[in-house]
Design a protein that fits this description.
The protein has 14 helices and 13 strands. By secondary structure, it is α/β, with parallel strands linked by helices. The strands form 3 sheets. A 7-stranded mixed sheet has the order 2-8-7-6-5-3-4, sandwiched between helices. Helix 8 links the parallel strand 6 and strand 7. It binds 4'-deoxy-4'-aminopyridoxal-5'-phosphate and glutamine. 4'-deoxy-4'-aminopyridoxal-5'-phosphate binds next to helix 4.
């Protein structure tokens, strides 16, 4: 191709390629064990895969309704009722999306106007800022200070202004594994009461909460849910990140705005996956075994590194373990993960990638959603450091 003669003004001048793509590519290039990008290296249950094939063979291969297949929306409504006691109307308050990323983007596009302020917590998942920037909104960051990464509510209160349109929450939290408490939810409810602030709650790790803790979904709290779009992802829950399917829930008036954007963004989502998931969701016990599975992997990971130079930070949820490596090296976190990948064959994510100001606190993130064999090999390499 010739180079383009056009002069291009970027809509996202500060943005490069996501750290997840960069580190996965580096891992592949060096044949390293990839504990960077968050995805399981084991397969989805055979039964779910069989249901997908069955759905396609049965002829569920044309456009699903714009809002998602009714059977899947019903299954989601039943799930949130059973787990969180939340009543959502499958017809008007639930939409199936092409993963959580699209749901988050669509909610932001639907609800954030140019000049609006959006509060999020840093370290922050990388898609929020660019999604807000594309709508002309302004990100305002509250700190989650290491090592507990707990919110400082007095700071959040100071950041709220008449221009605050949205607060984005994410518990269990990527990348830190911190989990919000019932007190956090009560404080948040008091802060947003009598404001016009909408909450966007990213709950993709809702089923990965450890040590008997409870996932404090916004859906449990009517005073929060009445002003919230809540997002989750089947990718995390059923080991199918590559299917790119998730959903959003919101009160009718918010969901109506969400759908106006959704219909021109993706319009509708892969039909056979929706049939397969609706059928598979009827199976009891999945969420409990998922929590046990990941708690077990977290424990293996932590035990193996307990007496290593890596300092293990708390991990209450998600499938990520953060560690401080300063006893091993005084390199910057990006340089350290690159060398770890190249020379020691294990890839990780530098936490500076999650800070809008690029702050480097000598902390990196490992994903432990891996088979026993992969974990054993990776941990052996890390223990040798
Ligand atoms: N939010 C968070 C916090 C995530 O970690 C991820 C994916 N790892 C997503 C959203 C996106 O989920 P999906 O793959 O369903 O788009
Ligand atoms: N959310 C996943 C992570 O944190 C990656 C998803 C992506 O690559 N965008 O690793």
């Amino acid at each position: 191709m010739p180079s383009t003669p056009l002069s291009i003004t970027s809509r996202l001048p500060q943005v490069g390629t996501t750290i997840f793509t960069v580190m996965s590519a580096l891992a592949q290039q060096h044949g390293a064990i990839n504990l960077s990008q968050g995805f399981p290296d084991f397969d989805a249950p055979a039964e779910l895969l069989a249901l997908l094939g069955e759905a396609a063979r049965e002829g569920h291969n044309q456009y699903a309704p714009m809002t998602g297949l009714p059977v899947l929306r019903e299954a989601i409504a039943q799930k949130v009722q059973a787990l969180y006691g939340a009543d959502y109307d499958a017809g008007e308050e639930i939409t199936v999306t092409a993963g959580a990323t699209q749901a988050l983007f669509t909610a932001i596009a639907a609800l954030v106007h140019p000049g609006d302020e959006v509060i999020a917590f840093a370290p922050v998942y990388d898609s929020y800022g660019p999604s807000v920037a594309l709508q002309g909104g302004r990100m305002v960051y509250a700190d989650l200070p290491a090592p507990s990464y707990r919110p400082d509510w007095a700071q959040v209160a100071r950041l709220i202004t008449p221009r605050t349109r949205m607060i984005i929450l994410n518990s269990p939290h990527n990348p830190t594994g911190a989990v919000w408490t019932a007190d956090d939810m009560a404080t948040l409810a008091a802060l947003v009461k009598d404001t016009n602030i909408v909450l966007l709650s990213d709950e993709v790790y809702e089923h990965m909460v450890f040590d008997g803790l409870r996932h404090e979904s916004v859906l449990r709290y009517p005073a929060l849910a009445e002003r919230a779009v809540v997002v989750s992802s089947f990718g995390k829950t059923y080991h199918i990140t590559g299917w790119k399917i998730g959903y959003a829930l919101a009160p009718k008036a918010l969901m109506a705005e969400f759908r106006k954007v959704h219909q021109f963004n993706v319009f509708t989502v892969h039909t056979p996956s929706q049939v397969a998931l609706a059928r598979f969701m009827a199976k009891p016990g999945w969420y409990e075994q998922l929590r046990a599975l990941y708690q077990g992997k977290r424990d293996i990971f932590r035990q193996a590194l307990a007496s290593s130079p890596f300092e293990l930070l708390p991990c209450q949820g998600t499938y990520f373990q953060c560690v401080r490596y300063v006893a091993l090296s005084d390199e910057g976190d990006q340089a350290f993960v690159e060398r770890l990948t190249r020379e020691h064959g294990v890839a990780a994510i530098p936490l500076s990638a999650f800070y809008p100001d690029g702050r480097d606190e000598g902390v990196i993130r490992f994903c432990f959603a891996k088979s026993a064999t992969t974990l054993e090999q990776a941990l052996e390499r890390l223990r040798r450091l």
